[in-house]
Amino acid sequence: MAERQHLKDHFIEQRIFHNRSVAAIFFTLILFSVLIFRLFFLQITSHEHFSTLSQNNRVSVQAIPPTRGLIYDRNGIILAENVPSYTLQIIPEQTENIDALLAELSSLINLRDIDIKKFKKEVRRKRRFKGIPLRFRLTDEEVAIVSVNLHRLPGVEIKAQLSRFYPYGKETAHVVGYVGRINEKELKTLPVTNYSGTNHTGKLGIEKSYEALLHGQVGYQKVETNVRGRVLRVLERSNPVPGNDLYLNLDINLQKIAIEAFENKRGALVAINPENGQLLAMVSMPDYNANLFVNGIDSKSYNALNTSWERPLFNRTILGGYPPGSTVKPFYALAGLELNVIQLDHQIFCPGYYQLKGKAHKYRDWKKWGHGKTDITKSIVQSCDVFYYDLAVQMGINKMHKFMTYFGFGKKSGIDILGERSGLMPSKKWKKEVRGQVWYPGETIIAGIGQGYVLVTPLQLALATATLANGGTHYQPQLVHSIRQKADSQPLQVIPKIQRKISINQQHNWDHIHQSMEDVIHSARGTARRLNKPGLRYKIAGKTGTAQVFSVAQDAKYNEDELEEHLKDHALFMAFAPVKHPKIAIAVIVENGGHGGSVAAPIAGKVIDSYLSQFSDAELNTPAKQYNDSNKKQHKNSQPQADNTPVRPADHVDPDNTAAAHYKEFNRG
Amino acid sequence: MHIDFSLLMMLIVLIIIGQVILYSASGENTALMQRQAIRLGVAFIVMFIIAQISPDTLYRWSPIIFILGIIMLIAVLLAGTIVLGARRWLDLGLFRFQPSELMKLAVPMMLAWFMSRGNIPPAKARLALAIIILLIPVLLIAKQPDLGTSLLITSAGLFVIFMAGISWRIIFSFIIAAIAFSVPMWFFLMRDYQRQRVLTMLNPETDPLGSGYHIIQSKIAIGSGGSFGKGWLNGTQSHLEFLPERHTDFIFSVFAEEFGFSGILLLLAIYLIIILRGIYITTQAHGTFSRLLGASIILTFLVYIFVNIGMVSGILPVVGIPLPLISYGGTSIVTLMAGFGILMSIHTHRKMLAH
């Protein structure tokens, strides 16, 4: 650099720079003058003109929100509807003293603190000439009172709009979910234009996962408004396209019966049609009223729900991970048979405990003095633990893991609502990767009776039961039955999707397990024999389970009465019926309920009984395919009657949306 | 500390005005204000750091930074992340980076480096080479497409060449050539939406509810502000829901509506003082490199102001150029402040330079 610069003529360089700097200043001043001249023209010379344009009538575009799609149950009973509701809103600009106005209003109608708090928060955020909602869902009486007094309430207006309402808000909260006001986070992900007139979006359940289908397409109108924003006339209008209606597989009456059967106990129930994976009932107890969330729940009620030790907001059917306990036994027995680890005539002697060779530790049976000679049927009927300790050791954890995975243990089911957990089916590989530890033989033993690391969701247990019932066809569980795009069109049925078919080694192995499970109910010593009522028109196959929450020390005596409530065993029951042509598969978990046979089984029994009461004796003894076409009794109101047209993805469905992703997947199956 | 206090004071005043008007334009969105404040903080730190680097060091690093920038621009075209239809971002895992922002400084640095190695005024061959150096990044950025940035980089490069003393005759033939260049640009390089912007700029009334809507609404907002404005937070026109980008590119309309012509004169006065201070710094600078670079930076700042205000007041087409240090938005603030850092460095290091 230095050498070359010496060659340069510094004097010329200085002079050029000086000249160019002057030119730059000149250039700057010219550009600034142009701007000032232009702005003078706009703001001073033409001020009058633009002021008129700004203040007098102007054309604006208003969004017309689409009507949200309705949700029905399988019999056409409405589960989510839009009801006209009145909103009271205030335009701050038109009021002189907001606090005085609020005081005046609260003397007329009921205003909660939360309403006022939210209103004041929005006043700070929004423009002063925009209406800000103060109270939603005014009663007719309140509308009348406010309307009469409107002349002395400047800035107050009553707006009619549609609001979401769930007639079975408590019964369906965990399935249908709810909509709520769009929050800041959702504002970023939702398509801006399409939601320009929408205040609510699906937050949970079907309402969330099918948001793209339910919402619809926004419409617009070009209107001439005055300075107060009042519409003078409509110049042009494009109507919104309402959202799609959904028909669920859920039977709301069955759902109600299941909830009643729980009698305020905590737990979950999932009922599924083993012929196609349709979900008939999904109950998580305790429940809560979804309607509370639609227009904002006050923080006190929310905290009460959120911090309750009973956890009503927790959807146990897809989120709860429970040790399956003895309900895994039929699966392991089948695994032993199908993998040729044991034969049909296999039997052991149960002394009441099991010991590994050369080890002192005793793995105890629930029956202290033992079951004596035990074959496969007896092991299921009386739920012998030692039989399965022995079988587990013979099979080893990896075979158990592999076989149980066929039935969906440890895997997400693919249900069409979001957030389900995958549960856990342990293996040596899993323990190495996740825990970084080696697998101990003792862990295989307790896995044999569904304890230890094994965790299932009630949905997984019901689905596995369905797969066991129908002879190895594993369906993707499905809440939505059909989708109706227009009010006058036929609903399009969502095709059941088979996730996998388990290849059968010997059919009689499966029959043997079914027969043994039937004996759980229909034999004199079965653990669920109380379900075998006289005059039962069908046979039930099932298995009870009692899952330990609390581990009992070696040789300690287990005293149920002394244990605290939340340390008591979970009661489980899984079943399907009728045994020969299953139409319902069910899983019930009662948290800290005690024994599966006495607590969980009766709940399942009531649901099975109610569901099967709609079938004639002939139907109970035939597979679905033979009566489905001729007999339509199943769909009482015939409204959601499925035609067999496959669902095609609609053009306007946003492919990135999860609901739409589900929607597409249906068609692959 | 290598800091120019008069420049610093004016920048702070400008940023305070910017925050005040952003509060109104964003709809009193404090979360957005916080994000902007964090950006401004980062930008100030960047400015302070760069001000400590001597122009000699910048000189030595210029070619390397330029070549790195070109490589990144090519990488963006091959593997960049598409945001809003344009491929501008490079995902570096930890953060996303916009190489075209780096080029806003790298191009004038490179050209100042190149010109200062030859005679002043430059020979014709050197001039031709300089034009090629300029065209490579400009075309790469125009291809992303980012019309606003390629315009700013073009002017930054041309200012270096201008300050290097090319004859006025060349400048005028250049202007004619630029007009000739705009023809293929219109047909081959511009996207439909850009062409539409130019067309509606020429006659916004043709499409009042489509692409001309912004300009009409913006003009109404500015015009209705009058001499003294409608008052802070009381702008009605500019707060209509149907004027988007009102806290980014169109923030000037909000300012003009709420503070009127008198407010605008004050704002323009602050901008003018900053520019004049910048030009003063370059006249005092030691070394050709410093002078060319400093002048280019401050004149590019002028282009920002002129194009943005010209655009919202309807005398220039709508190209996405923010109002410097006032519009809400990411990397351009950091780049602008880095530029002021260089100016401060040029001014405060001048006594220490040997030549």
Give structural notes.
The complex is a heterodimer of chains A (669) and B (355). Helix content of chain A is 37%, strand content 19%. The radius of gyration of chain A is 34 Å and the shape is elongated. Chain A has 26 helices and 24 strands. The N and C termini of chain A lie far apart (73 Å). Chain A is of the alpha+beta class. In chain A, strand 8 and strand 9 form a beta hairpin. Chain A has a domain at 252-646: DD-peptidase/beta-lactamase superfamily (Beta-lactamase). The longest helix of chain A has 36 residues, at 10-45. With 355 residues, chain B is mainly alpha-helical. Chain B folds into 2 domains: 1-52 and 197-297 and 305-355, no CATH class; 62-190. Chain B is 69% helix and 3% strand. Chain B has a 3-stranded antiparallel sheet with strand order 1-2-3, with helices on one face. In chain B, helix 3 packs across helix 4 (99-116) and helix 4 (99-116) runs antiparallel to helix 5. The longest helix of chain B has 34 residues, at 251-284. Chain B is globular. The two termini of chain B are 22 Å apart. At the A-B interface, helix 1, helix 2, helix 3 and strand 1 of A face helix 9, helix 10 and helix 11 of B.
